[in-house]
Structures
1.
Amino acid sequence: MKELCAKPLDAIIVGAGFSGIYQLYSLREKLGLRAKILEAGAGVGGTWYWNRYPGARCDSESHTYCYYFNRELLETWQWTERYPGQQEILRYLNFCVETLDLQKDIYLNERVSDATWDDQSQVWNITTKSKSKFTARFLITAVGCLSTTNKPKIDGLPAFSGDVFHTGHWPHEPVNFDKKRVAVIGTGSSGIQAIPEIAKQVEKLFVLQRTPNYSVPARNRPLKPNFHLEFVKKIEFWRGKMQRSRHGHPWVAPDREVKKMAKEESLKIMERAWLHGGLSFRDSFCDVLLSAESNEIMSEFIRQKILKTVINPDTANTLLPKDHPFGTKRPPIDTNYFETFNRENVCLLDLKANPINGCEPNGIRLRDDTLIEIDIIVFATGFDAMTGSIEKLNVRGRGGLELSNAWKAGPESYLGLTVAGFPNLFTITGPGSPSVLTNMPRAIEQHVDWISNLLNYMINSGHVQVEAEKSAARSWTKYVTNVANQTLLPKANHSWYLGANIPGKARVFMPYANGLDNYRKYCDEVARGKYQGLVFT
Ligand code: FAD
Ligand code: NAP
């Protein structure tokens, strides 16, 4: 059994994506703590290390999807496109690790399999799959909201003789699609990005769609040569804009309601936003997620775009999203998604009308007995989001309390960052935080700064332990649910925001929906009030 650090560490951080990298820097450089990252992958980058599928690209604009905490990083790195692709983001995160000299404190290929609080020694004992052991005073999970893949159980899948891939665990070697017949299951953001790219490479592509999805054109383009210089000059302007935004994007929804506007005027606004492209389309009005009537106007606008784009009327009708309001699932943005269904080598299959019965050695059999003969299955079926990777750590807190047991009826946390009964545990982008409803680097920097300030406060005031008060965690979780219930967000049936995509998972709306701006204010107030809601010993 290897023991990589004989002396207890100040902190173990699990995960080397955006969250873990900044947390390590923050503890080491700002607080002077001894901290290490344990990362399951063979490289850093998190999401961008694992999701290498064709078409994988960011939906946040590049100059907003990066760290803002360090001037050198901001001034040196130059993005090339409006939305950076997977490889560019991965290069960026490796550049950050090198520039900040963090490699020596990152242990790769170390998947944490167990983390147990020792009440006597007041430390966390952490074990990895390769049997390495670590001891640390603080345990900080930076395991990602979307890092445990969801691969649905399909009868007979092991007997399928072709290749099977998941978008969220894509191989490092190129996948050869040439002359292949391929099925993609799933039409969320990952499927919608992968389908147009895979379609260009294969002999035949079958898209197996369960729920039709809304999608807005991304309108990606190369950035102008002077973009970087202009951006750096105005960095405080961008920072301020994102701090005032609910989603951490550089725009704020204007104070106008769709339903109260003349039809021609709202159409003009939507048309302009559609041409501009990207996630800001959703924020063309302030009430899209608040009023069913307003939402329906935007939803119908997108349906009309689909009907105009897709030539075959049956295919177009099958692609029309009708079972959930626009924006109640994370809205994808795309490059030629609906246009792809006009290709002769692409065939859309409606799983609602004709579900999968099972797999056979040479393909997928549908309920009506059709056999789709294929060489490759691509699962674009998403993730056990927000809690999946945290629960897999097998965290046991005070008195052996198991986190997965404590969260059986749904995750309960204070601010999404701390859990009652689990001393000195912090969950970056945990359930109950705004995380996945935001441009995540902005939320991550806020979480990390808040955790680091709290640790600094503890060190200065001689506190050894901290954890959420049970009552504070309970009321925060109730508040998160109430806030979501005032919006249309819980109306999407299979949404991963609700845990509804995973059979047996508690159905609870997990992210905080009252905006990153309000969340930041609340967290700052808690800190100013000497961290009310937390118990120190
Ligand atoms: P991650 O990047 O997920 O990193 C977590 C790390 O923890 C992983 O490397 C994982 O291997 C490691 N880990 C997990 N469990 C263990 C364990 N037991 N032991 C050791 N290591 C472990 N967000 C946006 O804001 N804008 C976007 O456009 C956007 N696009 C996305 C595209 C895709 C395909 C996906 C899947 C997500 C996207 N996201 C986007 C969300 C994205 O996850 C975040 O933006 C961000 O990358 C999260 O960083 P993180 O460090 O918190 O988590
Ligand atoms: P997802 O949004 O959860 O979509 C999964 C898809 O698989 C859905 O179409 C779902 O259908 C389908 N599916 C799931 N189980 C199925 C089953 N048993 N049979 C048939 N179909 C099934 O997952 P994702 O596309 O990977 O995206 C997850 C999140 O990652 C996004 O919401 C986003 O936050 C992030 N992401 C972002 C980007 C980006 O910004 N660039 C790109 C990719 C991912 P139902 O709808 O019927 O459940």
2.
Amino acid sequence: MFKKKFLAAMLGTAMVASMLTGCGAASDTGSSDTDTEAATTATTEAAADDTADDATADTADDSSDDSADTADAGGKKVGIAMPTKSLERWNRDGSYLEEQFSSKGYEVSLTYSDNKIDQQVKDIESLIADDVDLLVIAAIDGESLTQVLADAKEEGIPVISYDRLIMNTDAVSYYVSFDNYTVGKLQGEFVRDQLDLDNAEGPFNIEFTAGDPADNNAGFFFNGAYDALKQYIDDGKLVVPSGQTEFDQVATKSWDTATAMTRFQNILGSNYSDGTQLDVALCSNDSTALGVTQAIESDYAGTNSVIITGQDGDEANLANIVDGKQTMTVYKAVANEAVATLDLGIALLKGETPDASLIDASGWSFECAYDTDSYDNGTGKIPSYLLVPTVVTKDNIQTELVDTGYYTMDDDGYPHPTN
Ligand code: BGC
């Protein structure tokens, strides 16, 4: 495993601004032609508008660089398949990826498939029929793309598995993600530290909520968190009153907020209505944390503040963190994930076989590991570029999210994504 960290002095608004430099050519053509899922909220639409505005400004500023930057694109097309607009982060991923590839002169088609597996297969079929030269895919169901990706392979189209590993296909060339096990580990260690489990007497009560079993990441998140807390559960210092400690028992189909809420209301009704205190709700991500927080607000009889974990830095969850309703989120800078995907994509489009040296050669201003060991998709180990997640709490929202330029703190006192 190789690691590279560039000078912290590079961080800050200037870094983010330069990272997104030249994001101008992102036309709506790709998304309006192939975008099969309507934007679900006004916020999303507003964010998309902001993106377009920022992009225009950047294009004007950097037009002199663009001709050099875009020389390699040579009319090549990039197909980007995202899972859904209904989970906030994928809107940001799609925008960033579209901006990045367009800024280098590639024609981009961006699809969202409404969390419907068959729709995503069809969307990818269309991208292949449209003669894309590269596919970047965040799968809805990691197990369902074997056939369509066999077609991509036959056409010689390289495939980057984006954020979620696509299973059971030898068509995947590379994987770009965050260190998913570490995401869960950070959540578990956060709970350990908050409760001072090494010194406190306990026992404390905890319940787990994990993600979609169809998403290969979900098991990594759950295992990372569970492994960090297992010794305390084994010792009896942490107790799980529902008895639900297996991934399959705590998983949430489609990472759905309402599903997580209903399950948690049932847990509270069955195990906590007698006044039993809940100390921790370990949630794998923000969409599930939102449902669990709603369940606690509506159905929990206790008055203590429950430690609630999350992941992503979704707007509603950051507002809950500011308001003291959620305790932490694990933030993953998807803007950087898009930058890593761009440089990897360019190398693949040039016919190269990238390895660890891509990290140095690209001069990324964020930390990234090249890992050829951790992710096996059933046909073999997939070389992976893994970025590093960060714990965000009320105390460091300003330094981690606002000072870095990812979010702006609005007059309402809540952070909103910059892009
Ligand atoms: C992503 C998480 C996200 C979840 C639901 C996972 O694959 O890694 O960041 O919270 O999907 O969208």
